Amino acid sequence: MRRLLSGNEAMALGAYHAGVRVAAAYPGTPSTEILENLARMEDIYVEWSTNEKVALEVGMGASYGGVRAFVSMKHVGLNVAADPFFAASQTGIGGGLVVVSCDDPGMHSSQNEQDNRHYAKFAKVPMLEPSDSQEAYDLIGHAFDISEEYDTPVLFRSSTRISHSKSVVEVPDAGGNARKTAVFSRDPHKFVMVPSNARPRHPLMEERIRRLTEYVETFPSNSLVLGDRSLGIISAGAAYQYAREVFPEASFLKLVTTYPLPGRLIREFASEVETLLVVEELDPFMEEHIRAMGIEVMGKAVVPITGELNPQVLRERATEAGLLPAPVPSATPVTVERKLPLRPPLLCPGCPHTAVSYALKTMRFTHSTPVPEGGEGETAAAKKERRRAIATSDIGCYTLAVYPPLDALDTCACMGASIGQAHGLEKAGITDRIVSVIGDSTFMHSGITSLVNVVYNEGRGTIVILDNNTTAMTGHQGHPGTGISARGEQVPRVIIEELARGIGVRDVNVVSAFDLKLIQDTIRRCVDADEPSVIVVRGPCPLRERGKGKPLVVNADKCNLCGNCLNLGCSAISPEADHVRIDPVVCVGDRCAVCLQVCHRQAIEVTEG
Amino acid sequence: MAKTDILMTGVGGQGVILASDALAEIAVKSGWDVKKSDSLGMSQRGGSVVSHLRLGKEVFSPLIEKGNADFLLAFELLEGARWAEHLRPGGVAIVNIHTMPPPSVLSTDTTYPSTSEVEDILRQFTDQVFLLPGTQMVRELGNPQVLNVLLIGFLSAFLEIDEQSYIDDLSQRVPAKFLDLNLEAFARGRQEASNRTPPGRR
Questions:
Q1: Which chain B residues touch A109 with a CB distance below 8 Å?
Q2: What is the pTM for the complete model shown?
Q3: Which one of A506, B15, B42, B77 is least enclosed by Cβ atoms within 10 Å?
């Protein structure tokens, strides 16, 4: 059967047909849809874990129990899961264990573009890389086989273009889910990594890679296309497709086993061609290995080390390097001269993050700059001024409040960092008011331990937890605070305010995300308190709960276009000649009504519509 | 089968991805090799959306290079201008003249382009420019949700895919009570294309 599948759909189907029994993940672009697709398949266990480390530990447990286990995450998720990833390499597996890492070259929706191929080499784990959806489907089955044959987890490396592009896949008409029976066989020498058991495992890991190096020499999906011998290209993943497009005449060695690399195959290919070029996205992972083999090769001298690769960039750089003839200059202009307005993503109309972001943007606190110790001290009194609070932020939709007009945030680094960063600023002696801003799903992922840390180490932090009752940025997945499972079923709900109280926070507040004054008053009280406080700002994501309130309209006689409401950055509000207008199609009405609360002239009114 | 590169652009929520998914499925069923890649990241939130759709005998890259698109199908005026550079010389630009000014026109020195400015930009790359009051046309049909079907109907007049394949796909994809509306929108778009182009030009 020919089907048009995204890479993520193909990986999910491949895992199902390979007999996976347990699948676990934490949502993260571009990997999210893999588990979402598995959650639609019958008779397998699927979960959103609280974070990637937990997901991989669940996968390890299932694998130790003798069944095939599958774990997927975005590239930075593997940083979170690095500890169990290395541990799984050390113990080996029971049933096959496949770990998918979806890298994000170009940072379409990520904070960095690290190249996770290094993790394979680092953890001494074999790696497979598909170059389209067909290979994504086919290789998952191979990955499970390799895992079981060589007693190792397998890293399956995708990228944004592989995961999210669609291409034609030939799949069996009646692919089933033939599973192994779960059996745990006690084996402390393998599964209990006290030093005396761990030491003998390391030589086994080295031996495993040596055997795998031999195995990949004849791996069927590594393929050779011999064309013009003057240029030979070694490539993998999405980069291979771009290279085929840009160099239609060249010879190719396409590799899907990118760790360990097939040395003899590479050497044979190199001897067939005059010039050898490695086309790979991000780091010179293959290039450095090939050069270390003593083979003359070009790579990053031509292909950029930063950003997402595409045929355009590859063509330009190859032309500059003399690998392609210069194009005939065109008679017609090739660039648009006129500057066009950008259209960046925004918080949606009705977003529960708007009011709190506006509060952080606009609230001012009296701040006394302390006289420096041992300073000249011309004035004995501290300098007083009105300042904003410092807002340490986290990973989620609310990070969009860093853009104008909200411009409300001061940091965003990695999942869960906001609370620890705020604590560090406080302990460093920063005397500004400090607020941490973190979403409900991110708090569950890795904010809880940081909140415990604040309580234990006598911090005074004000932690704002933005609770929209979903993992919104990645497309509305459940998490422990929602009480909705990966399959969409009702399950026990972890209640954030009770969790905070249980940790030992005494000052726990729950406020409506659409009550600006209450948000402002609560923040003002909490930042000046001498103990840690939590403010749960609660309101549903408007993309998930789509109901509308009564319509809001602008009274044109009262509006003087002061621009206050425009500072909310709500895309439902736009300026006209002498007043603002609210677009009734996208506005959610009085279930939000934050604009009404910031208008000094009462020019925004609720109608009975 | 000749290579056909189609770039679809618009604003999050307009149904660009859905249209490109449908056309891709139709092309697969009609025997083409197909690759497609959509704009990534946070486009659901009112941002620019672009979908690269490539049909051919054997397609490698899922991305269309600048100067290579045979068709630019824009669901919104500004997004038509933004991607003009991707058109190949003589490619076909089909642009819904509906305007959705982004908030950045308030805070930056850039202004929203007029229809004639956009037409001038497109004509730098091709003389096959079709400016279409698509949003107006679907309002007349009674439902703004079928804009993507109407635009695909217009585009379909240029493609080597049998008309029945589109109708079959709609019949499978669309709930029964909306089917007539969708078929009407498709026919309206396709009819508009034949009204505007002499048969030999296609």
A1: 40-42
A2: 0.95
A3: A506
